[in-house]
Amino acid sequence: MFAQEELLAQLGDGYTNKVVERLRNFAYLPTGIVHQLAKDALTEEWGINEYALEKYLAVHIPWSIEQGKFTNSYNQFYVTAGHLQTRYGTPLYLVFGQNNQGEPPWRLIKAGSNIKAPELPVSPDIPEPPTIPMGKEIVMMHDHILGDNAERVPFLSNTPLVAQMCAVSGAIQWSLNRNLQLSYWYYGKMQYLVPLYLENRENIALAPDAVAPIQINPNSLLVRTVLSPDMPYANARVAVHRHDQLPPWLLDAWKRIAQQTTNEQIEDPEEQ
Fold first, then answer.
1. 141 plus 266 within the same structural domain
2. Which one of 43, 191, 209, 240 has the lowest number of neighbouring Cβ atoms within 10 Å?
3. CA–CA separation, 66 vs 7, rounded Å?
4. Does 104 sit behind a cis peptide bond, omega within 30 degrees of 0 on the bond before it?
5. Which domain range does residue 169 map to?
């Protein structure tokens, strides 16, 4: 039997954006098993070599351990594959055994809806993001938040800097007033992703011009950067039970670029 404290110590610090690397240092995930898991689950786009799926697992497996949502036997432990299910609504499970070949300490030995375990685990809770304090100042992380990424909002490139900042701030407030924000995982915490409709607001089912990750501070909403609509998919995906709970524009944007997106872009979209 394995205590929660032992597994947490093997996982290491959760304050990192390199969550796949963290998971790989904890457990070896054979490519074939991950691929089969993608086939068994409801059909969705996971990108090249299912790297977005690996990131999804790299967030949800630690959540299961941190929340005590795992079961074990004398030489194995069991977690759900996050909230993934088969086409018939059956939960998908992961079986980890001790890695007798050395590091990392664990090895994924099976994934599927039919596993043998003394007790089946339950899915982890997806943490709630903090409450948005309405009426607080919207602060840009730096003055050139659009200047450094002008290609993401090209129609603002010739606009004065102050006008750019006012446009982004106003678009954020407009979306927040209509509850268009999405839960968004970043650096071990839940925050928000806000769509920016800057050119047209007639149909919010269509993709926004850009999106802004925001951090909730006690006295302000901090805008870290501006992203194109497809970039933050993997970080938004971990925050919902099913991919179809994400807005259609995000699913469409991700589907168009998923097979061209690098591991680095999936791992940390805000650094690209």
1. yes
2. 43
3. 9
4. yes
5. 137-271
Say if residues 198 and 167 touch (Cβ distance below 8 Å).
Answer: yes
pLDDT in tens, 109-145: 999 999 999 999 999 999 999 999 888 899 987 665 6
Which amino acid, residue 143?
A: D
Mean pLDDT of 183-192: 93
- Asked, for residue 168, whether it belongs to a domain, the answer is yes
Return the bridge partners of 212, or none. 194
Among 53, 77, 112, where does a domain finish?
A: 112
Four-residue CA torsion sign, 225, 226, 230, 235: positive
**How many domains, the chain?**
2
The model carries a pTM of 0.93
Spatial distance between the Cα atoms of 217 and 132, rounded to a whole number of angstroms? 9
DSSP designation for 242: S
Burial class (CB in 10 A: 0-12, 13-18, 19+), 124: buried
Do 105 and 61 belong to one domain?
yes
For the chain, what percentages of helix, strand and coil (3-state, to nearest 5) are there? 35, 20, 40
Residue 169's nearest CA partner among 194, 200, 133, 150 is 194
Evaluated on CA atoms 143, 147, 141, 163, the torsion sign reads positive
Question: Is residue 126 one of the residues assigned to a domain?
Answer: no
Rounded Cα–Cα distance for residues 177 and 190 (Å): 20
pLDDT tens, 7-56?
999 999 888 889 999 999 999 999 999 999 999 999 999 999 999 999 99
> Is 229 found in the same domain as 105?
no
107: which strand partners?
28, 97
- Between CA 196 and CA 204 the distance in angstroms is 10
Is residue 219 within 8 Å of residue 137, measured between CB atoms? yes
